[in-house]
Amino acid sequence: MVVSCGIFRGELAALEQGGKFPWPVRCLDSMLHMHPDLLAHKLDEEVEALPGRRIVLLFGDCQARMDQLAARSGVRRVAGHNCCEIILGSEEYRRLRRAGAFFLLPEWSARWKEAFRDELGFVTAESARLFMQEMHRRIVYLDTGVVPVPTETLEEIGSYFGLPVEVMAVPPDRLADAVAGALEVDDG
Predict the structure, then answer these.
(1) Strands across the sheet with 2-5, in order?
(2) Do 157 and 165 meet the contact criterion of CB atoms below 8 Å apart?
(3) DSSP secondary structure letter of residue 147
(4) By C-alpha distance, which of 36, 29, 38, 40 is closest to 68?
(5) pLDDT-based confidence at 186, cuts 50/70/90?
(6) CA–centroid distance for 56 within its chain
(7) Which residue, 12, 62, 171, 179, is the most exposed by fewest CB within 10 angstroms?
(8) Helices marked H in the chain — which ranges?
């Protein structure tokens, strides 16, 4: 059983449809990332609801007790500090981060107002720009190929944050590889 952040819902469905993801999946709402305590509670509920099952958590370090949860018998977590590192791989993720990239996946691109305005409180473009431009030089949309590139939305996001937006094709196959890698870990 795979318990995944909903940020990968579309990618996992596409992989399953293509015969590349044979594991059953339960997805949690990606906005739980904004509420780590609630995410921890929901993950505990999911793991407790699946006693005796081997479980792979398809999550980064999204809440403080993630490693404790993954240390439970039969529970594993994929490698990667966050969803972008999981799908890009560590080397490419670090290279782009060093170059000042902020990443968007299809799920959060569609929900960007909810994430940045409602949850993070960037209700004005000015406040958003001050925050984002302090740490980032550009926005990189990770095009996993599961939905058409939302060109108009990305233009709106780039304008709001005052940053250029690039589109980078990233096949979602790495998600299946990450889960397979976690399953190879011995329970010891």
Answers:
(1) 25-28, 2-5, 55-58, 75-77
(2) yes
(3) S
(4) 40
(5) low
(6) 15
(7) 171
(8) 9-17, 36-48, 66-70, 83-88, 90-98, 106-110, 112, 125-135, 151-161, 173-184
